[in-house]
Amino acid sequence: MIAAIHLSGDVQVWIGALLTLMVFSFLWRDNPFYKFAEHVFVGVSAAYWMVMGFWTTLWPALVLKLFPAAGRWSSPDAPVGAWDPVALIPAALGLLMLARLWPRLSWLGKWPTAFALGTTAGYSLVRYLRSDFLYQIEATIGTGLAPTAAGRWLWQESLAQLLVLAGTVSGLVYFVNTREQRGAYGRVARWGLLVLMITFGASFGSAVMGRVALLVGRFQELLGPWLGIL
Amino acid sequence: MSGLKQRVPQIILTVVALLLIASAFVVRPEGSNAPFVQRLLAFADQEFATWFSILAVFAFLLGGLNLIATHLAKIRDCGPDRFYSLVTLVSFLGVLVIGTAKLGGPPGLQGDVTAPGSWLTAVFDAVLSPLHATLYSLLAFYIASASYRAFRARSLESSLLLASALIILLGRIPAGRYLTAWIPEQLAFLRVEELSLWILRVPNTAGQRALMIGIALGVIALAVRMIAGVEKDPRSGGDGS
User: Fold this and answer.
1) What is the tens place of the pLDDT at every residue in B63-97?
2) How, if at all, do strands A148-149 and A152-153 pair?
3) How far apart are CA B127 and CA A149, in angstroms?
4) Does A67 contact B at CB distance below 8 Å?
5) Cβ proximity of A8 and A225 under 8 Å
């Protein structure tokens, strides 16, 4: 028995459903409906994130520090803060970034870019050294290879940790390209490659599951709130 | 002048990065009597992240202005896709006005821009969220067709990749569990959900750690090269000058 259709009367649901169908139409081939949805997506997402950036970052961290009286617009009852001249530095860097719009001044845009790269390099070096290098080594060998619980040796855990250690080391050996991978060294690298292929397979499987979950979600939206079948 | 153009960006990059690296090894000062260097490093650690976020918003602004200029030029040139450029511009400017003026929802500028009932939230729920989810869900079809062509078991490596992906997929769906439910309790570790868990816990962990350590070494080397001024492109701002 086919369930009765109860079309939604909500404009938001209709817009979402029609845009969803427009995007799915690309499975047939590129067409004007898909192009329309694609261009709406570009325009809306660019403006949305710009607005979010303005109200969540630029307004409290820059505008209110340079023009404290502006706080009366957003929260009239809150006390007016003090003027913070330090905020002139990021304001100047931000304006220099906009200099890229004028070809003759575009070289000034390299200064904020350099600041952004310096910040990224500074934070990344410490963060990666700590969390992705030292902590990963610690997690691999730090707990020991003979874990026990209540005085009993957990041989299955030991075997798993030994395999993780062997897999990690051999995977790293595979990445070393400054030495020819021959003989025993080559066999270790080959084992590392196999471990990496299993890892890529697992990542691929997880990615497929994620996409399929999104697809199911879209069909649920179409069949549920829009058509009222579910 | 050319020296200023070339050297200042590298000096900014090096000084900023070194201050942040040094700040990671210095404890936060307590009180205003702390040495100047200690206060400077604490200031850098605290403020540079905020400045970076502010610059990111300016980058969005630059991107938005570029978007307007590009699509206005397309409309002016009466190109074949001018209608779509108009669609982009109208959606962009419309949402920009809605969000900047905080239309709908709590009154005026005092309200939260993402509060329930605000027009920006409505745009997110009705337009952005469905489009985002649908565009990403399209990949499910393309991944399926790509994997059919790429994952034919022609070697041990591709067979392992295929087997690992299949076990992970089957291990997470009810149908996969029914497939191996007949395996007796003594051999339960051979059931697909157990195999899936084992793959995630052992070989996947090993591979992910090898990748993370390898990437970390790469990032650290790149950061050192940038700080030392050996890396060419970032200093030149990507235009090679």
Assistant:
1) 999 999 999 999 999 888 899 999 999 999 999 99
2) antiparallel
3) 53
4) no
5) yes
- SS3 annotation, B51-91: HHHHHHHHHHHHHHHHHHHHHHHHHHCCCCCHHHHHHHHHH
CA B197, CA B203: separation in Å to the nearest integer? 10
Task: Sort out which chain B residues have CB atoms less than 8 A from A117's CB and list them.
Answer: 13, 226, 234
A99 touches chain B (CB under 8 A): no
Do residues B30 and B42 lie in contact, with contact meaning Cβ atoms separated by under 8 Å?
A: no
> Which pair of tokens denotes residue B11?
């000096």
Q: Answer whether B122 touches A (CB < 8 Å).
A: yes
Query: For the residues B130-156, what does the mean pLDDT come to?
Result: 83
pLDDT bucket at A16, cuts 50 / 70 / 90:
very high
B25, B127, B147, best to mutate vs chain A, most A CBs in 10 Å: B127
pLDDT at B238: 47
Residue A32 backbone phi and psi in degrees, to 5 = -60, -35
Q: How far apart are CA A91 and CA A72, in angstroms?
A: 21
Yes or no: say if B138 and A24 are a contact pair by the CB < 8 Å rule: yes
Q: Do A98 and B167 touch (CB under 8 A)?
A: no
Of chain A residues 13-32, which have a CB less than 8 A from chain B? 13, 15-17, 19-20, 23-24, 26-27
In order, the DSSP letters of A40-71 are: HHHHHHHHHHHHHHIIIIIIIIIIHHH-GGGH
Q: Is the pLDDT of residue A150 over 50?
A: yes
- By percentage, how much of chain A surpasses pLDDT 70? 97
- Residue A49 · residue B59 · CB < 8 Å: no
